[in-house]
Amino acid sequence: MTKTIDYEEIKSIMPHRYPFLLVDRVTHFEDDKYIEAYKNITGNEPFFQGHFPEKSVMPGVLVIEAMAQAGGILLLKNKKTAGGLVYFTSIEKARFRQPVTPGDRLRFEVTVLRLKSSYCKLSGKAFVDDKLVAEAVFSSALSVK
Fold first, then answer.
1. Residue 17 phi, psi dihedral angles, 5° rounding
2. How many structural domains comprise the chain?
């Protein structure tokens, strides 16, 4: 089932705020299974001030963080975990294939590999113009209110 989530709804789901809310929109979402989300990268991103002043490149760790936030939206959209928190616990097999620069639109595809009551393992990929720029497998702990 396709579901979209706009920025205002993302803010109601996630505890993150500027400058660390790194997902702008969700365009596809299947409960407990899959999410597709976007982040528009502009030259005004605060991390570009120091990474790097002469050639702006989004830090790879923030690409992975944005991917994990997309996974967090997927997990917290579930009625059983709504209002909880998602804590990153591990990153495996992270690969960075291309730099991400101002003007790019990052598309994230995140799939749930394993989901238990307080633990989740996800696989994520990040694309720019259908080119794979990063991928990782990551785990999270779920804290439910």
1. -140, 170
2. 1
